[in-house]
Design brief:
Helix content is 23%, strand content 29%. By secondary structure, it is α/β, with parallel strands linked by helices. α4 packs parallel to α5 (198-209). It has helices spanning 15-21, 63-68, 125-134, 161-176, 198-209, 296-313, 319-330, and strands at 3-4, 9-11, 34-41, 52-59, 78-82, 88-94, 108-113, 145-150, 152-153, 158-160, 182-187, 214-217, 237-247, 254-259, 271-274, 278-284, 287-294, 334-336, 340-344. The chain is built from seven helices and 19 strands. The strands form five sheets. Strands 6, 7, 8, 11, 12, 13, 14 and 15 form an eight-stranded mixed β-sheet that branches. A three-stranded antiparallel β-sheet has the order 1-10-9. Strands 2-17-16 form a three-stranded antiparallel β-sheet. The longest helix has 18 residues, at 296-313.
């Protein structure tokens, strides 16, 4: 039976990363303060009809959120965004989510479970991915609903193709029962590094036909993502991991965006997103905590959160329009010009509109 792996690993040192990207001063706290302005129409253009969403400006300790709300470096310790993901459901296919984590509490619904006879939480991976999507202070769309789709067997820390396919059919049926909510499927796993998998391709197609964009991680491996399933599934939005690094000597040093080492690359990628030492919800034993995570799994979560913001503002957008928007908005910043020249860095379109005088 073919099994599926969750491609990521954990890092635990935050201060040095923050100091590098914020000019030598690490953040002192993990809280946020926010200014919310209502009655602002989301600025991103789309063929789909747009609706009014909030403009939110908040101090943040998340270097990832700080990066995706601005086109250029350095970072400014602020996360600015239109909307909150309210009314959007994100189905996270993973190994279970800690629904009592303070970053997620009250917004996680348990859904499909391919292995109901075992414990619900396999590890912290699903909680981190869900936090990237919709954490209260560490996620892109802090009001989105998460549905826990458990397709990993804890005993082996692997999923199966059959579990994913069953989960996809369950998601389609569940979404049909909640037609008032737009939905996204997040697949932070890899299944094969040598071939396509027709069953996964069909599952992606079925989800898209149901109006559900599918976001997949490219994989934490130095190879062309076109060889990795499900990154090679037609219609999936494929996400690579990026980092910010310092280039040059002390006198001429500058910050640049780059592909995270060990991240899949190539023309099958649609977008890069932060995925190197990103601060996210986690679990120590059974206790809620935060840790630094590295991997395309986290990057996919940030893109799912960005899509939640976009769908809140453009509720009639098709999956194809969503994918087109993500690609178009990201083009200003090329991350890997040698091997992924057409793939840019996730940008949520956050410029604060001018307020007319009275």
């Amino acid at each position: 039976m073919r099994r599926v792996s969750l491609p990521t690993h954990v890092l635990r040192t935050a201060a040095a990363v923050a100091a590098t990207l914020l000019g030598g001063c690490a953040p002192a706290t993990r809280g946020v303060t926010a200014n919310v302005h209502t009655g602002v129409v989301a600025s991103a253009a789309s063929a789909a009809a747009s609706v009014t969403t909030e403009y939110v400006e908040a101090q943040t300790v998340s270097l990832a959120l700080d990066r995706i709300d601005q086109q250029s470096l350095p970072l400014d310790r602020t996360y600015r965004h239109f909307g909150t993901g309210s009314g959007i459901t994100v189905y996270v296919f993973d190994g279970g989510i800690l629904d009592t984590h303070p970053e997620l509490v009250g917004r996680v619904r348990r859904g499909f479970n391919a292995f109901p006879g075992e414990e619900h939480l396999c590890n912290a991976h699903g909680t981190a991915v869900a936090g990237a999507v919709a954490g209260t202070t560490l996620g892109v769309a802090p009001a989105a609903e998460i549905v826990d789709v458990k397709m990993v067997e804890c005993r082996r820390l692997r999923g199966t193709i059959d579990a994913i396919v069953q989960g996809a059919h369950w998601v389609i049926a569940d979404h049909a029962r909640h037609p008032e909510h737009r939905a996204i499927a997040n697949w932070s796993f890899i299944a094969d590094t040598a071939a396509t998998i027709p069953a996964l391709d069909s599952a992606v197609t079925a989800l898209i036909d149901a109006g559900i964009p599918v976001v997949v991680s490219a994989g934490n491996i130095e190879m062309n993502a076109c060889r990795i399933a499900p990154a090679n599934s037609p219609g999936a939005i494929v996400v690579g991991a990026s980092r910010v690094r310092r280039m040059g000597s002390d006198s001429t040093a500058r910050l640049v965006d780059a592909r995270t080492p060990g991240t899949a690359f190539g023309p099958c990628l649609d977008v890069f997103a932060p995925g190197d030492s990103v601060l996210l919800p986690s679990i120590e034993g059974r206790l809620a905590t935060t840790q630094l995570w590295t991997g395309t799994s986290m990057s996919a979560g940030y893109v799912s959160g960005a899509i939640a913001l976009y769908l809140e503002a453009h509720p009639t957008a098709t999956p194809a329009e969503v994918a087109g928007h993500i690609r178009a908005a990201s083009r200003a910043t090329v991350v890997d010009p040698t091997r992924s020249a057409s793939t840019g860095l996730l940008y949520i379109g956050s410029e604060k509109p001018a307020i007319a005088s009275r």
